[in-house]
Amino acid sequence: MWTCRSCIRLARQSTRFAPTSQTQNFSSHTSSPLLTKTNHFASNYGHLASRNLTTSSDSRPKRIVVGVTGATGTVYAIRMLEILREVGIETHLVMSKWALATMKYETDRSWDEVQALATKSYALRDMAAPSSSGSFLHDGMIIVPCSMKTLAAVRAGYCDDLISRSADVCLKERRRLVLAVRETPLSAIHLDNMAFLERAGATIFPPVPAFYTRPKSVQDLIDQSVGRMLDCFGIHLDNFERWESFRKA
Ligand SMILES: Cc1cc2nc3c(=O)[nH]c(=O)nc-3n(C[C@H](O)[C@H](O)[C@H](O)COP(=O)(O)O)c2cc1C
Q1: What's the Enzyme Commission number for this chain (predicted)?
Q2: 107 lines ligand 1 (CB under 6 A)
Q3: According to a count of CB atoms within 10 Å of the terminal CB, is the N or C end of the chain lower?
Q4: Hey, how many other C-beta atoms are within 10 angstroms of the C-beta on 183?
Q5: What pLDDT score was predicted for residue 11?
Q6: Where along the chain do its domains lie?
Q7: Cα(72) to centroid(ligand 1), Å
Q8: Is 90 in a helix, a strand, or coil?
């Protein structure tokens, strides 16, 4: 069972602040010393004054957009969806055509099984899906694994599918975008695209394994990388090994 400190923190916050701080009734300001300003506000924004305004950031669930492309390593995406489901974080999944082909070749999972791990899933060509717009609020996007083709599309701002469009939206809205890029060796074009996107605000996260944890299996390596990817979103799992110092023999 995974536990997640930020989920517990979010739950505490929503209990602490609801309902008073989420609701501001602007019509109650009429007796303040700022009478003139308030009258101006009321006459120009009367439609707002008559409503109770709330902020969705306090009440909506934490949600992550997960894009999966046709680089080797769809196992990382599957594990990420499993963990996010277990810790109760909403996921919005988009898979490319080549991600499906790679997943079929590299794993025993079917599209239906993987789709069932996500809260919602969308077709790659569905440019009307929520994450296509900046007004759809979420806590960031990861493309895992991220092919060099999609990396190049994101770098160029070439939004011809839902994955590249959603990533483009993340950058323009200054939201967290993590690119689990996978290729080896890397050409000057790949490196240049990565350096450019890092400067544009993305986190470049090649799933390079760490061996200081003394992994016993491939699953250990996957869990370690996925745990570190989730750290990028402020989702800190307690159940994977973190470096503290050299262990005493
Ligand atoms: C089995 C397999 C493994 C692949 N591995 C990689 C890879 O590690 N990195 C990469 O950039 N492309 C890889 N490719 C090529 C991409 O699938 C291809 O460039 C594709 O057009 C990517 O499209 P997408 O980004 O829309 O998924 C692989 C293809 C196959 C069939």
Answers
A1: 2.5.1.129
A2: no
A3: C
A4: 17
A5: 42
A6: 5-57, 61-231
A7: 7
A8: strand
Known binding-site residues for dimethylallyl phosphate equal 212, 228
Residue with tokens 């370690």: 224
Q: Tokens standing for 31?
A: 């007796």
Residues of the chain with pLDDT under 50: 8, 10-38, 249
Q: Point out the ligand 1 atom lying closest to the alpha carbon of residue 97.
A: 27
Q: Could you give the 3-state DSSP secondary structure of residue 200?
A: coil
State the pLDDT at residue 31. Answer: 41
Structure confidence at residue 24 (pLDDT): 35
Amino acid at 156: A
Any idea which residue has 């609020």 for tokens? 137
Distance (Å, rounded) from C-alpha 248 to C-alpha 55? Answer: 50
Question: 115: burial class by Cβ within 10 Å (0-12, 13-18, 19+)?
Answer: middle
| CATH code for the part of the protein at 61-231 | 3.40.50.1950
The three-class DSSP label of residue 128 is: coil
Q: With a 6 A CB cut-off, is 147 part of the ligand 1 pocket?
A: yes
Q: Which helix (H) or strand (E) holds 102?
A: helix 97-106
Confidence (pTM) = 0.83
Q: Is the CB of 75 under 6 A from ligand 1?
A: no
pLDDT tens-digit map of 113-168? 999 999 999 999 999 999 999 999 999 999 999 999 999 999 999 999 999 999 99
**C-alpha closest to that of 96 among 73, 127, 75, 68:** 68
